[in-house]
Design goal:
The protein has three helices and nine strands, in the order αβββββααββββ. It has a six-stranded antiparallel barrel.
Length: 171
């Protein structure tokens, strides 16, 4: 009978990986790093395509349709006592997205950024994977749980909208 050690010896053991999120943008898409933070978790967005089914003489033919990939991603950031991450995204949403004094004069170039998601290897230095999301902006900031029950790190989740998901490419 196999033991857990036999299973662990087959491949490398599970290691702790870290995610680094960098937002790049600025006025008219300048390559300025706006934010660079380690994140607790991020789900790489799904890629999917609709299918078109055509019935012809009792047969079904399947064809590729339009890109139906979701255009939102949620990142869970670690938070500090000053709520730095929460305040950063709250300010972004209030000043760039929902400011009624601007009156619709803000273009997408002024409120979107490029998000680079980097997976760091277990040494916390080597980048092993990279995804770039274009025209990113926050659409939702989750609750920040302030509780002493479990004495865990504070976290804040931010959901972003984006246009495209590029694997290992920079623009």
């Amino acid at each position: 009978m196999a033991t857990i050690q036999d299973v662990r010896n087959v491949h490398n053991p599970q290691r702790a990986y870290e995610w680094e999120i960098e937002l790049i943008g600025g006025a008219a898409g300048a390559g300025v790093s706006l934010l660079k933070e380690r994140a607790k978790s991020v789900a790489i967005p799904e890629t999917s395509v609709d299918t078109i089914v055509i019935n012809y003489k009792s047969q079904k033919a399947h064809y590729s349709g339009r890109n139906s990939s979701p255009s939102a991603v949620t990142v869970v950031f670690w938070e500090d006592e000053k709520h730095t991450v929460y305040n950063y995204f709250k300010k972004w949403m209030e000043e760039k997205l929902t400011d009624s004094s601007v009156g619709g004069g803000v273009t997408a170039d002024q409120y979107t950024a490029r998000m680079v998601i980097r997976m760091q290897a277990h040494d916390s230095q080597t980048t092993t994977g990279e995804f770039t999301l274009t025209r990113v902006f926050p659409i939702s900031i989750g609750d920040v749980q302030l509780t002493y029950d479990q004495s865990e790190h504070m976290e804040v989740s931010v959901t972003f909208s984006f246009d495209s998901n590029l694997i290992g490419k920079h623009m």
